[in-house]
Amino acid sequence: MEVWNTGKSDEALLKPRQMTLGGYMRVGEGDASAPIVVGIMYPEEWELRPRAEFERDIAALKAVDTRIEVLDVRYSESEELRTQRGAKPDEDYRQLCPEMTQQQRDAFARVEIVLAMDLPFDVATIAPNLRWVQGMGAGASQLLSAGLGPAGIRLTNAAGVNAVSIAEFVLARLLQQWKRLPEIDAMQRVHTWEPKYGKEVAGATLGIVGFGAIGRQVALRARAFGMEVLSTRASARQGDSDPDVDELFPADQLHNMLARCDAVVSSVPELATTRGLFGHVEFATMPKGSLFINVGRGSAVDERALADGLRSGHLAGAAIDVASSEPLDKSSELWEVPNLMISAHCATSSDNFWANLHALFRANVERYISGESLKNQVALVGEVAVGEK
User: Fold this and answer.
1) Which CATH architecture fits 10-161+349-386?
2) Residue 207 contacts residue 265 (beta carbons within 8 Å)
3) 3-state SS class at 384
4) Active site residue 297
5) pTM of the model
6) Active-site choice (74, 221, 233, 297)
7) Fewer CB within 10 A of the terminal residue: the chain, N end or C end?
């Protein structure tokens, strides 16, 4: 989901909102002194950094324009509900949503812009002045069921802000497997001097499924290790190329690419076209002894098929940072699958994430106020998002 440009003008994007509200007035038109109300609404407990750093980012945001008023009022849903809304944006999960406080209702009634991870259903009714939502991650599928598309509310994702750290995580998992680091560590724990020789990374072929911001950063690092890098991209056509990969494949050539890979990385977003993308056929198409890594969306993988591929020995190993249902239940069979490494959706790194996120948000606020197109805008068709992670 690197950049989801609609190819449409702002006027075309906002037409449904104009019809809903009886006329959309852009910032700076009409009453030039009217406040631009911005809501900071992502989960506060996620911000594992000193409060002073957050306050510096808020001060920098206010400095963009004297009319900006910031409301620090958080709204968040459970991880399980967020996953469900992302996987099935057409489903009605209202009964599972938290009851909003009066403070939250008052804030939504005023905001024009929000930086959020979650939104309530029927947000256009709850937030009649809302014009634009800045998501926190590369994936923003959980926000679709709030009714943004039909209301003409713009949505941007945060693709790229954590791409470097996630790409580093991917390479760490590859090296962990190919250099047999867990086995070496196990020998030390039992005080045994027994060599465990790993695989040379240079010359291996890596396949990337989903060539957005994360996929590109993975490719750059893999090539630095001397790997051959192949990738699919949803928008690619036969014969297309990209300077950061050795070969680029259209999405319908996925199997042709998989058959050539020593390892495959999935970094696709949550879309109707990516749900269940990897199943028994895809894992069987990969060469025996290959590796699979998923840092995209858990919904892209048939987890039973992945487990079968590992238990049979066809796949030498796999690493997943995402699951079809999060948090992964303690009773899930995945915990016991051999050679499967699981991390709790933590491939990113928090040290630079927040600074990068707020820098992107500020830049987009400047674009919004000046009437320019927004970076990382998601193309919404009804409630379907189009793009790559």
Assistant:
1) 3-Layer(aba) Sandwich (3.40)
2) yes
3) strand
4) yes
5) 0.84
6) 297
7) C
Residue 122 phi, psi dihedral angles, 5° rounding = 55, 45
CATH superfamily of 163-342: NAD(P)-binding Rossmann-like Domain (3.40.50.720)
Told to judge if 326 belongs to the known catalytic residues of this protein, a careful annotator would answer yes
Strand partners, 250: 233
- Parse the chain into domains and list their residue ranges: 10-161+349-386, 163-342
**Cis ω before 327 (30° cut-off from 0):** yes
pLDDT in tens, 233-281: 999 999 999 999 999 999 999 999 999 999 999 999 888 889 999 999 9
Q: How far is CA 127 from CA 107, 113, 131, 323, in A?
A: 8, 10, 9, 32
pLDDT one-digit tens code per residue, 163-195: 999 999 999 999 999 999 999 999 999 999 999
Catalytic residue among 49, 326, 362, 367: 326
User: Choosing from 260, 311, 314, 345, which is the catalytic residue?
Assistant: 345
Residue 318: alpha-carbon gap to chain centroid: 20
Q: Return the half-sphere exposure (C-beta side, CA atoms, 13 A cut-off) of residue 255.
A: 7
3-state helix, strand, coil in the chain (%, to 5): 40, 15, 45
Mean pLDDT of 69-73: 98
Q: Under a CB-based contact definition with an 8 Å cutoff, are residues 263 and 383 in contact? A: no
191 catalytically annotated: no
Cα–Cα distance for residue pair 191/172, rounded to 1 Å: 25
